[in-house]
Design a protein that fits this description.
The complex is a heterotrimer of chains A (399), B (256) and C (400). Chain A is α+β, with helices and mostly antiparallel strands and 399 residues long. In chain A, 32% of the residues lie in helices and 33% in strands. Chain A has 3 helices and 24 strands. In chain A, the strands form 6 sheets. Chain A has a 6-stranded antiparallel β-barrel with strand order 3-12-15-14-13-16. Chain A has a 4-stranded antiparallel beta sheet with strand order 2-17-22-21, with no helix packed on it. Chain A has a 4-stranded antiparallel beta sheet with strand order 4-11-9-6, with no helix packed on it. In chain A, strand 13 and strand 14 form a beta hairpin. The two termini of chain A are 62 Å apart. In chain B, a hairpin with a 2-residue loop joins strand 4 and strand 5. In chain B, the strands form 2 sheets. In chain B, strands 6-7-8-3-9-10 form a 6-stranded mixed beta sheet. Chain B has a 4-stranded antiparallel beta sheet with strand order 2-1-4-5, with helices on one face. Helices cover 30% and strands 24% of the residues of chain B. Chain C is built from 13 helices and 12 strands. In chain C, helix 9 packs parallel to helix 12. In chain C, strands 1, 3, 4, 5, 6, 7, 8, 9, 11 and 12 form a 10-stranded mixed beta sheet that branches. In chain C, strands 2-10 form a two-stranded antiparallel ribbon. Chain C is elongated and about 120 Å long. The chains are: A alpha+beta (399), B alpha/beta (256), C alpha+beta (400). Chains in contact: A-B, A-C, B-C. At the B-C interface, helix 1, helix 2 and helix 3 of B face helix 1, helix 10 and helix 13 of C.
Chain lengths: 399, 256, 400
């Protein structure tokens, strides 16, 4: 009899247990999820720190000096002596344009030069001849003048002799002039020859500096116009990175700052360099500042011109100031600020921010004081009436 | 406790008609029956004789069409009355004992019996006290806190008898109470009924066709074709083998 | 008077609780379906809330940038930022595409934002881990739903990005997680074609005699350079100074700049009304069907429970139990079942909701409505059962 009574009691306890469990679960569910549950947040104490802002930008590797080697007149490419990747020294012959008829014209002029020499000699001989004739005619004129005085000859023959004298004097002048002119012919033709030789030299494409052949743009037989390049030469020592920085936060960017260059082909090995200069013209459309960053030591193998790279420039460190992680900065009611935690209650404080570094730390200039506790991460968006629960790490967020 | 105002059952010319007009069927055409308090009578009839209809009228399940029915203290039906609260009648005036115990399986034995006084509005503690009295009288009090499924058939039957008696109804209708039982157990049930009838001065009508117990009745009503006629029964006592004398049987000091 | 309903439950409590749990799972499914619907609508709203914008400026005559593609020049924002009432204007690009990490591909909405401006429009409002983007290239902030960790490198089109911060609930209107990258990278990702296409384009330009004149050697290079520029964005997000009405700021932009401008309410209507309308209706219909099925099953269970007790009910009626008492017993059992079912359903829905691939939003309002509905259904179901019980003939017990 007692046992039967207890059996019923056990049953009642069993049922109560199940019901109790259900109620407990239900209450748990209501309190822990849904809007009644407090929002888990992580927080941080505002401290002073000196941050080192850095700037990153994307750049392309370029050569400071690129030489486009080509002809100065339209012509056909005759020979190209180098290929891409060849190292050349200053003065090396890179190629030649087709001389066409220059050689023949030089030959023609040289023959002309010989002819001019012969002409000079002929003129000189003529002058000699005129000189002797002139002397003879002068003597004859004097003799006949004496004879006329003695009435030995007629006036007509005297005039004839005087006329011959004048004619021969004129002839002498003309011969001298002829000689002078023949003499000028020589340097003229010489100058023509010189000019043609220079033009011929121009057909040779000479490397102006030591460098690397970067591109071979025209092969033998191609017709090129002045301005087109046959070979592009780059000065290896002048490789640099042309970097574009977003205009925001570039305060403090200056010549000489050290930089880390991360080439796209070597993403794990940064190459040291430094900022050479900042371009006076920024890009108004893309809102970027342009700068040139040189390599401290040109990396081997040579990065190709045009390769993309990421450049990080470390700006000078700032004075210590109050710093919070940028995840703490939020927007509420149209203002930027942080959520201050006061005794487990939230209050939104509008702040004024200063510089920030690449690790996400932001200076706070106004609004909070040292030692204040602010919200960093939250499980849901926060409002002034939100109930919060401080945790070390948010549920569901991996470390 | 014996109330001297008990009058048992008195039925005169009870009629019951089903339907109306041409399709009307007279199930009871004029039944006369009297049972004194403390008496146990038998009611025998084949199926189709109107036995079920008479039972339903006696059991206040349906309303008769005519005649007079007196149960206990007052007339409960007279010609043409409309019986309003059959349920209350059943609760207060009639106890039922069935072929099968029909205990409520989700109540323990005590509460099965105590349910009836509770339905009558009596407080729980008092109801349970009365229930305990009956269970003790029927020697099943040691099973008071068990569930019906844990009792033997005989024990369950006794509990159902206790339930029938707990509200002290003036009449008990027992419908084939011994049908599933063998000889010895059947007689045991009859003994109990007789004892209870005497102890509580209740009129008991036993509907049966069990040959084993028919000889025990002093009076038997036969019903045929909607009418009853009374017959003197053998009234065999239940003590000497196979019965014991009636007088001794009626002595409450006599152990079962 | 003893409580018959309570006694009956205790007697067969295992079966009762088991039935309640089964019913509860069904109710849980229905609640979850409502949560899926609400999650879809919330995805759309969250997209608008998290963009931090009060106005969306897009290409004229488009519904963009979410519902339709829109393309604007990227220098238009300057003119807008000087208008009265505008506290800030920023370019933004959106493109849904595959983001690769290691071996796997994630479908994400890539958002291009201008880095450096703190809490500007388009930037995520709060982070659950890490920091915002500081570098102007190759950094990303991703939503946790994408499955990326801080420090991982992800690949978007041509470039690799390092994940520096994580957000939560930053999703597109179709539930794709967002990944924020610097604007210029996003422009390149969206508008710069793949290498093959670029080679083809260069070849076509080189063959075009207009672009490739022998007397003008630099012309072809200039033309190709201009073809590779990406000066487009999808939208300009505008923040309004407090005290200015949205429409008043929007109207001059519409009229004088000849651009399309949407306020928050208009964007919400577009998103909810056009973008997710069909899916939402789909789920809504399914929800209704599920609710009807649940109601039917509840009714069935309660009815069967009652019919199983019909003999006891007949006996009770015979021995004089009031109809009211019997009805009360059935009703109490039905309500008890409904209560257990609802509690189990709510617990189950809360526990399995986070495992769904898209956001499931369970609001207390829905839970309360669900509870009321379950109780009403139980009452109505018990009415059917009570009718059956009351019709039971006590004479059955007498054996006919």
């Amino acid at each position: 009899m007692q046992m039967k009574y207890l059996y019923n009691k056990a049953r009642m306890l069993g049922l109560m247990g199940v019901i109790g469990l259900l109620i407990a679960l239900f209450v748990y569910v209501v309190m822990r999820s849904g809007p009644l549950a407090p929002v888990p947040v992580t927080s941080i104490i505002v401290k002073k720190a000196a941050i080192t802002p850095s700037l990153t930008g994307i750049g392309t590797v370029e050569s400071r000096y690129t030489f486009f080697i080509g002809p100065t007149t339209a012509g056909r490419v005759y020979r190209v002596n180098v290929n891409v990747g060849d190292h050349v020294k200053a003065g090396d012959l890179l190629g030649e344009m087709d001389p066409v008829d220059i050689n023949d014209r030089i030959k023609a002029q040289q023959t002309g030069l010989k002819r001019a020499d012969a002409g000079v000699r002929a003129a000189e001989a003529l002058v000699q001849e005129m000189l002797s004739r002139n002397a003879f005619a002068e003597n004859q004129a004097r003799r006949y003048a004496d004879l006329f005085k003695k009435h030995a000859v007629s006036e007509e023959s005297l005039e004839a002799r005087q006329n011959e004298y004048q004619v021969s004097a004129a002839g002498l002048l003309s011969a001298k002039a002829g000689l002078a002119s023949a003499r000028q012919e020589v340097p003229r033709i010489q100058a023509e020859i010189d000019g043609l030789i220079k033009q011929k030299a121009d057909l040779r494409l000479i490397a102006p500096v030591d460098g690397l052949v970067a591109s071979r743009d025209a092969d033998p037989g191609t017709t090129v116009v002045p301005g087109q390049s046959v070979v592009q030469l780059i000065d290896i020592a002048s490789l640099w990175v042309n970097v574009r920085f977003e205009q925001l936060n570039t305060f403090g960017l200056a010549k000489g700052l050290s930089a880390q260059i991360l080439l796209r082909s070597m993403p794990d090995q940064p190459v040291p360099g430094h900022l050479l200069w900042i371009e006076p013209f920024a890009d108004a459309v893309t809102e970027e500042m342009l700068a040139k960053v040189t390599f401290d030591k040109i990396p081997q193998p040579l990065p190709p011109v045009g390769e993309l790279s990421e450049v990080t420039v470390a700006l000078p460190p700032l004075l210590p100031a109050l710093v919070v992680p940028n995840a703490a900065i939020q927007r509420n009611g149209g203002q930027i600020g942080v959520w201050l935690i006061e005794e487990n209650r939230l209050r939104f404080i509008p702040v004024k921010t200063g510089m920030s570094d690449l690790d996400g730390r932001v200076q706070i200039l106004e609004g909070v004081s040292e030692g204040d506790r602010v919200v960093v991460h939250s499980h849901r968006s926060l409002g002034p009436g939100s109930r919060i629960r401080m945790v070390d790490r948010l549920p569901g967020a991996p470390s | 406790m014996v109330d001297s105002d008990f009058q048992g059952i008195d039925i005169q010319q009870l009629r019951k008609r089903y339907g109306a007009g041409d399709t009307a069927v007279d199930a009871l055409k004029g039944v006369d029956m009297q049972v004194a308090p403390g008496e146990v009578v038998g009611l025998i009839g084949p199926s189709g004789s109107g036995k079920s209809t008479l039972l339903k009228c006696l059991g206040a399940v349906i309303t008769p069409t005519g005649g007079r029915m007196t149960l206990g203290r007052g007339i409960i039906f007279d010609d043409g009355w409309k019986l309003k609260d059959l349920r209350a009648l059943r609760r207060d005036k009639i106890g039922f004992v069935f072929q099968a115990p029909y205990l409520i399986p989700f109540l323990n034995v005590l509460d099965n019996v105590a349910l009836l006084p509770m339905l009558a509005g009596i407080a729980n503690a008092e109801s349970r006290k009365r229930a305990m009295e009956l269970l003790t009288a029927l020697d099943v009090n040691h099973r008071a806190h068990a569930m019906p499924s844990q009792l033997s058939g005989g024990e369950q039957q006794r509990v159902s008898i206790a339930r029938a008696l707990v509200n002290r109804p003036p009449v008990i209708l027992a419908d084939e109470p011994t049908a599933p039982l063998d000889g010895e157990r059947a007689l045991a049930v009859v003994r109990i009924l007789n004892r209870m009838a005497h102890q509580y001065q209740t009129a008991i009508i036993v509907v049966t066709h069990d040959e084993k117990i028919i000889p025990t009745f002093e009076r038997i009503y036969h019903i045929r074709d909607g009418r009853t006629h009374e017959e003197k029964g053998e009234g065999r006592t239940l003590d000497t083998p196979p019965f014991i004398s009636k007088r001794i049987q009626n002595n409450p000091c006599n152990p079962k | 008077m003893i409580n018959l309903a309570g006694r009956d439950i205790m007697h067969g409590w295992g079966k009762f609780v088991f039935t309640g749990v089964g019913l509860g799972l069904l109710i849980g499914v229905t609640l979850t379906m409502a949560g899926v619907y609400r999650g879809m609508v919330d995805d759309a709203k969250v997209l608008l809330d998290n963009s931090g914008a009060d106005l969306w400026v897009v290409q004229k005559d488009t519904l963009g940038p979410y519902a339709e593609s829109s393309s604007l020049y990227d220098d238009l924002y300057r003119g807008i930022s000087t208008l009265p009432g505008v506290s800030g204007a920023a370019n933004v690009t959106y493109l849904t595409m595959q983001v690769r990490q290691g071996d796997r591909d994630v479908r994400a909405m890539v958002v291009g934002v201008s880095p450096g401006s703190l809490a500007g429009p388009g930037q995520p409002a709060y982070l659950v881990s890490g920091r915002h983007i500081t570098r102007s290239h190759y950094e990303a902030v991703a939503d946790v739903a994408a499955g990326f960790q801080i420090g991982e490198r992800i690949r978007i089109r041509r470039n690799q990005y390092t994940v520096v911060g994580l957000t939560r609930r930053m999703v597109s209107s179709s539930g794709d997680p967002m990944v924020f990258i610097p604007l210029k990278d996003a422009q390149e990702a969206q508008f710069l074609k793949d290498n093959d296409a670029i080679w083809q384009q260069r070849r076509r330009s080189a063959e075009n005699p207009a672009f490739n004149r022998p007397g003008a050697p630099g012309l072809l290079d200039s033309v190709i350079a201009s073809q590779s520029a990406n000066p487009y964005v999808n939208a300009i997000l505008v923040q309004i100074k407090p005290g200015f009405a949205a429409e008043r700021v929007a109207e001059p932009i519409r009229r004088w700049r000849r651009l399309q401008v949407y306020t928050r309410t208009q964007m919400e209507k577009i998103l909810v009304g056009k973008l997710i309308a069909t899916s939402a209706r789909q789920i809504g219909m399914f929800l209704v069907i599920l609710a009807i099925v649940s109601a039917t099953i509840v009714s069935f269970i309660i009815y069967t429970m009652t019919i199983g007790k019909i003999r006891e009910i007949a006996v009770l009626k015979l021995i004089g139990t009031k109809n009211r008492t019997i009805s009360g017993m059935i009703l109490q059992q039905a309500l008890g079942l409904g209560l257990i079912g609802f509690v189990v359903g709510k617990i189950a829905a809360t526990f399995w909701a986070p495992f769904f691939p898209k956001y499931v939003l369970l609001v207390p309002g829905d839970a309360i409505r669900g509870f009321a509905a379950v109780m009403i259904i139980c009452v109505l179901a018990s009415v059917l059962a009570i009718r059956a019980a009351l019709k039971a003939d006590p004479a059955e017990a007498i054996g006919g």
